[in-house]
Specification:
Elements: E1 2-8, H1 9-17, H2 39-48, E2 59-65, H3 68-71, E3 76-78, E4 85-87, H4 93-97
Antiparallel strand pairs: 1-2, 3-4
Length: about 100
Amino acid sequence: MKLYRPVGINEFELIRKSEMKKFPPRLHEQPIFYPVLNVEYARQIAREWNTKSAPGYAGFVTEFEVDSEYVSKFEIKIVGGYIHQEKHIIPSRHQLKRHLF
């Protein structure tokens, strides 16, 4: 399944340092990894949230593939209009990594 994750400049730099192979660990205060199901929503978050945050005031949209069987275990959350669909995933980092393509 193709998913999208909007990120700010700091998170993007950590992803880039991993050679675009992994997401950085979640922050203690943000334990949920919530990729979104469509690029329109990811762009909206990147534009309306990430570009308003220091440092860098920049937003990026990452696109990645996850094993459909694995990700189907997690509920889809609709958090606004029909395009605002997220998967709330609370795995260990190593667990999710095994299911990324």
